[in-house]
Write a structure and sequence with these properties.
Length: about 400
């Protein structure tokens, strides 16, 4: 079947040839309500290179975009910057169809791809700092080469960057990306606020556990004096205007710089825990500190992760259901635990009918995260005025604490 998709020119000899997935709403636990793109890029030097492939099921779209520029059989090299299946899912099919001279990945990339595809692919490893010459100096566009930089655990052990110094062009795989579908291919075509919100959500849900490594990477980019006119990630828009803005945000997010902001995270069975949450939020607001009231019947765990990234405090509430935490709370706290949040202050609350174990479990989880607990409020059945005043006091205590410490 011939498909009519076209490549998008980024520079004279570099094209975006990826795929747009407008319908994906769930990405390993992350709600992607704006869809995503799987970005692949084609470099047409003397050697033709495909940087990354796309998720299985989107191969025809990618091949069609490639065919709008060159005959795909002219691809000499495929570089796999990241082995996760959204970028390597159709790699075996592409290799079969294109028969490239070589396929490259980092040393760990070879290991991971061999594990995924049961050693059926022939992949050559590249060294950190290694170079792949694409064009000689007498080529029409001048010399062209790819330099490889390992970015281990950003966010997989195999991840690496590929850099074209002659074009000041970085293929950054997942780093600096976002889940945002659409036909706009460049950051300057998208409202700044949308870029900030989606880049923050992506960082919180994908890169937050590796903040120290992100800081080292940013330092490495600066120390190496890497000039960057264009940064092309594996998801979302290509940065050709605002890369420095997102780089500055990465500095801030990777440090988990806390602000005068509280997240009140909870769910409610019959409205009692909700009443308590509202009283706590009002108490916080009375101190002038910003507060986000996030009930899990409305908000998704990945939105919570985004909000909590810079919050100086977390107040978490759960009813007791069958002697346990409410399931949505257990879900979100498990997810947050994996994000390796920097310790901060917290509070706990909730209502119960007869046994009331949820508060004990919340306290244990907060302690396991290293959070300092500034107070606990629990009530049997429906909170009365006294309990709601205690909630209000807890909110004010936490708000005042942030005012005095941040
Ligand atoms: Fe876009 Fe880590 O995969």
């Amino acid at each position: 079947m011939t498909t009519p998709f076209k490549a998008v020119k980024v520079l004279d000899d570099i094209y975006w040839v990826g795929a747009i997935d407008s319908n994906i709403t769930e990405f390993h636990g992350y709600r992607t309500q704006r869809g995503t793109t799987y970005n692949a890029y084609l470099i047409t030097g003397e050697k033709v290179v495909l940087i990354d492939t796309v998720k299985s099921g989107f191969k025809d779209e990618m091949m069609s975009r490639i065919a709008s520029v060159i005959d795909p059989s002219r691809i000499d090299y495929v570089v796999c910057n990241h082995a996760e299946m959204d970028h390597s899912g159709c790699l075996p099919d592409v290799i079969r169809e294109v028969a490239p001279e070589k396929v490259f990945a980092s040393k760990m990339g070879v290991t991971v791809l061999n594990a995924h595809f049961h050693n059926k692919l022939d992949i050559e490893s590249v060294e950190d700092g290694g170079e792949l010459v694409l064009s000689g100096p007498s080529a029409p566009g001048g010399a062209l080469s790819l330099n490889f930089m390992e970015t281990r655990f950003l966010h997989w052990p195999d991840s690496m960057f590929s850099y074209l110094p002659q074009r000041k062009f970085l293929f950054s795989q997942d780093a600096f990306g976002m889940h945002l579908a659409g036909t706009e291919r460049f950051d300057d075509q998208i409202p700044t606020r949308t870029l900030e919100v989606e880049a923050a959500k992506y960082f919180a849900n994908i890169l937050l556990p590796f903040g120290n490594l992100v800081q080292k990477l940013l330092e490495k980019i600066d120390t190496a004096g890497m000039e960057l006119d264009i940064v092309a990630p594996a998801h979302g828009p290509v940065w050709r205007r605002g890369f420095n803005d997102v780089k500055n945000m990465y500095h801030q997010w990777s440090n988990q710089k806390l602000s005068k902001k509280v997240v009140v995270l909870y769910d409610s069975m019959w409205g009692s825990t909700n009443l308590m949450a509202s009283a706590i939020c009002d108490g916080i607001a009375c101190t002038g500190v910003s507060v986000k009231q996030l009930c899990l019947s409305t908000f998704h765990r990945s939105d919570v992760a985004t909000e909590i990234m810079d919050a100086g405090a977390l107040v978490v509430g759960s009813p007791t259901l069958n002697n346990q935490l409410y399931p949505t709370i257990a879900d979100s706290l498990t997810y947050l635990k994996g994000l390796k949040l920097k310790p901060r202050v917290c509070g706990t609350f909730g209502s119960f009918g007869w046994s009331g174990e949820s508060i004990k479990y919340l306290d244990e989880i907060m302690a396991s995260l290293g959070f300092e607990n500034l107070g606990q409020v629990k009530t049997k059945y429906v909170p009365d005025e006294k309990v709601l005043n205690e909630c209000h006091d807890l909110g004010r205590r936490i708000g005042n604490h942030l005012t005095n410490t941040i």
